[in-house]
Amino acid sequence: MKKGLKITLIVLGVLLGIVALDTLQAKVFDNSPLLKIRENLDGGTLDYIDKGIFVNHYHCNNNEDVTTWKGTKFACSVKEITLDDINDKIINFMSSNQENNTNYAYNYVDTKKQVIVVGLVENNESNQDEFIMKVFSNCCGLEYINYIKNNNLIEFKDSKDVFEAKIIVVEEDRITVEVLEDSGSLKKGTKVIVKITRSANVTNDFYVAGNNVRITFNGNIETSNPVQIGAIKIELM
Question: What is the predicted pLDDT for the residue at 101?
């Protein structure tokens, strides 16, 4: 055997031995292989995958480490998800994204039915899916979302009310109105402060005392004297 070929075979043998030992230690001890490419994952229950030659090593965000043969499917175990945890995540998301969530009205834990109740102004299947994805996709991942859906942990309810009123006071960022007819949430004669946004350059401003308006809001009423609401839409009658 020629010397060059012999050296080549020895080098190949050493490399194969290193790969075999690396694969063996990774598989037996659920370690990451030394010869690998790391794929970092953003969100969900999986932090990263170390892709070796014959094995993949998975590191979950609950500190679970598992090494499998290439081609074997694996999913991190999902920690127990509580109603309080879901409710807190909704509150945290909504408190930091108020301006972009006008369709959202409220959420609370229904301990009797063991669900989170969420009120939506326009309550349909498309908006329900959009709400869940928007709130939980970045913080929690697909496994978390599927757990919520598969166990029906969120119950959506219609939350919209419309009433007619007369403007009695106009201020910079609010108007005070008097309800003209009973609605689902308000009685005739009730004084209501309605929060508004208005431009200083508005030319056709109908926020004038004495005008009658039709107000659409999400059904959420703040306890005060008078009570306060945030309007979704205000129309001149």
Answer: 72
Say which residues have a Cβ less than 8 Å from residue 171's Cβ, sequence separation at least 6.
none
Q: Which of 114, 223, 106, 113 is nearest to 157 (CA)?
A: 106
Among 138, 136, 158, CA closest to 146: 136
Strand 191-195 and strand 46-51: pairing? Answer: unpaired
Euclidean distance between CA atoms 12 and 18, whole angstroms = 10
Assess whether pLDDT exceeds 80 at residue 98.
no
Which residue bears the tokens 């920690």? Answer: 79
Structural domains of the chain ordered from first start? 3-69 (no CATH), 83-158 (3.30.300), 161-236 (2.40.50.140)
* 154-158 vs 161-170, strand pairing mode: unpaired
At residue 66, the pLDDT reads: 92
pLDDT of residue 204: 55
Q: pLDDT per residue over 6-47, tens digit each?
A: 778 888 888 898 989 989 998 999 999 999 999 987 656 778
pLDDT at 140 over 90: no
Quick one: CA torsion of 100, 102, 108, 113, rounded to 10 degrees?
-110
Q: How many CB atoms lie within 10 A of CB 193?
A: 18
Classify residue 232 as exposed, middle or buried by CB count within 10 Å of its CB (0-12, 13-18, 19+). middle
The 8-class DSSP code of residue 99 comes to G
Q: Rounded distance, CA 132 to CA 119, Å?
A: 13
- Specify the higher pLDDT residue, 102 or 183: 183
The count of other CB atoms within 10 Å of the CB of residue 179 is 19
